[in-house]
User: What shape does this take?
Amino acid sequence: MEKLFKLKAHGTSVGKEIVAGLTTFMTMAYILAVNPQILSATGMDAGALFTATAIAAAIATICMAFFANYPIALASGMGLNAFFAFGIVLGGGYSWQIALTAVLIEGLIFILLALFKFREKIVNAIPNNLKLAITAGIGLFIAVVGMNNTGFFVADGGLLSGGAFTSPQTVLAFVGIVVIAILLKAKVKGAVLLGILATWLLAMGAQLIGWYVPNPDAGVYSVIPSAVASMPPSISSIFFKFDFAGAWKLGLDFVLVVFAFLMVDMFDTVGTLVGVAKQANLLDKDGKLPKAGRALMADAVGTTAGACLGVSTVTSYIESAAGVGVGGRTGLTSLSTAFFFLLALFLSPLFLTIPGFATAPALIVVGVMMMKAVKSIDWEDYSIAIPAFLAIIFMPMTYSIANGILIGFLAYTLIKVFTGKAKDVSIIIYVVDVLFILKLLFVK
Assistant: This one.
């Protein structure tokens, strides 16, 4: 372990790294319940998605351990999974096979970009305020998705009547939000996962006393698991289910889908890597991340492997900061987290019985965390504030992350050009604008 991970040089030990790995797993294990529920809305099998989510997380996190020796874990990204399900499939009208094909192409492109160290340059070309706006917009988007799952909102985003707030699902979801908030305020490790479990336990009690009544015909299922452990569900229904012929027929529209995945993932991953690395004192004297290329390669390999397994884009998790907070400093932390993901494979009856209204509070709270980015946007400069606001508001209002990105970039470019600052706009954003205009003109 010392030879592989250089524990002494990082001031850590095997025991400390394993505890850190478990801590990170506890803070991000909610993805094992949330990801199947979000992606299964597209028609994919929830059991297969659970298995694929766990295996993809383990593969990507192991790559991070050995490629970069960083205490950073990866899994299917929140926001990216919502974009996959509600933006591309349900919102865009594409099949989930087409969406998986786009994720595969994204992963392969990222591998090439990592090899040529071009990914960091692309990210640096995007104005920081637009990066912040995209982060906040995705947060607002997934919070709306969570609220739809609780019954707070109807499908079109309008408010429900007051009577709806007396349903067991809505009341329990609201309690879950409060529980997570209290745990976060108390700085309890794994607050999000514990909040989900608390809501689930209350739901079991509600079912036992007859308040919550299962009705499968109405999509209301029992919240009491029939077993604790079992062999992992098969992934055969989603494994390597790509539609290259369909992607080719879509032409420019498919290119836009891939580009949207690329943009969203780039902002999410690089921000997470820098944030966690700063907390772990891994940045150099110039504030840069050594071995950034290797870390981004782990992310790219994870996304590619995840697409083959049948899940949405895999990305670095900010929850890795929890493991760093208890002493994790090397790839052994990541390796430990990967082990716990593999162990969780045999607990599918538990994770798959957790109802959507119990995981919805996690979506809403994660949305709150991502919305913090708005405080760093320069709201005094309207040439920046207005494009940022449009990017944020278009995502939940149009139920499309891609729309938010594109309208934000286009507004930014037009304002800069007509205020005599066209040179401030990078070539990357001009390319995005051209793609957006072509989409408006030719893609119905």
